[in-house]
Amino acid sequence: MSRIVANAPAVPVSMLGRVLALLDSVAAAGPLGRGELAAATGLPPATVNRIVASLLAERLLAEDAGVLRLGLRLFELGTVAGQAGVTLLDVAGPYLVDLHGAFGCTAQLAVLDGDAVVYLLKIGSPRQRRLKTRVAGRFPPHCTGAGKALLAFGAPEAVEGVLARLPLAARTRATITDRPRLLADLRATRRRGYAVDRGEFQDGMTGVAAPVRASGRPLAAVTLAGPTEVFDVPRAAHALRLVAQLIEGRLGGAGSGR
């Protein structure tokens, strides 16, 4: 059975848009066959084959036994981009290691990219209950601690745009799927300075997230998540807000109003 979900996105018109649609689909779904890629993007198979041939030649995609995955050239380009000065990952990484060690929970760093939360760093342990996120994965912001922290402290017009486009789909019975309730939750998040995910993303898991701000707007969010029965929300929130301030100071973009 195909792993592609129905209701494929609108077919991109420009050649660059088509290339990005193919790369985004492989990044989001993992290795895909060409037929699955055509279904995911809505592009004709002949078009997919033509673009894939060029991407393979440029090492932007790789193919093994008829299955496509992202190529090493994308990793090389990303590494070069990340070396342009001190990066957010350089600064935040050691703090997340400390958070993981102090709490024994999964520590993460995330950003808002368009209408999705993207995790840049995830530090956990195989012995812990598995949190269903992954580095470079794209997840809905309305049901994640990181997403709610980034929305709550974002520019109001940008948040309105995201919420207007975003289907408030339920991942668990606790997911907030009602727009007025979500807006009330975001206002509460802004008042207290951190977001709480009360099993809204994954059953049995609670998370807290605090924004890392630059010029008063959220640049990223730092998060901790663990089993609900042992997770200490106030303690985690205090630590995350402190870590967010330290990261801001190291980046030279301290936020205001904490």
Note down, in words, how this protein is organized:
With 258 residues, the chain is of the alpha+beta class. It is 44% helix and 21% strand. It contains 9 helices and 9 strands. The strands form 2 sheets. A 6-stranded antiparallel sheet has the order 6-5-4-9-8-7, with helices on both faces. A 3-stranded antiparallel sheet has the order 1-3-2. Strand 8 and strand 9 form a beta hairpin. Helix 2 crosses helix 3 and helix 6 crosses helix 8. The longest helix has 19 residues. The radius of gyration is 19 Å and the shape is globular.
Report the β-strand fraction as a percent range. 15-25%
> What's the helical proportion of residues?
40-55%
* Count of individual helical segments: 9
Low-confidence stretches: 1-8, 253-257
Oligomer: single chain
Mean pLDDT: 86
Please tell me what the overall shape is.
globular
Main pleated sheet: 6 strands, antiparallel
Helix and strand pattern: HEHHEEHHEEEHHHEEEH
Query: From the helix content, strand content and strand pairing, which structural class follows?
Result: alpha+beta
Strand order of the largest sheet: 6-5-4-9-8-7
The total count of strands amounts to: 9
Task: List strands and helices in order, with pairings.
Blueprint: H1 15-29, E1 32-33, H2 34-41, H3 45-57, E2 61-64, E3 67-70, H4 72-82, H5 88-103, E4 106-113, E5 116-123, E6 138-139, H6 145-152, H7 156-165, H8 179-192, E7 195-198, E8 205-214, E9 217-227, H9 233-251
Antiparallel strand pairs: 1-3, 2-3, 4-5, 4-9, 5-6, 7-8, 8-9
Helix pairs in contact: 1-2, 2-3, 5-9, 6-8
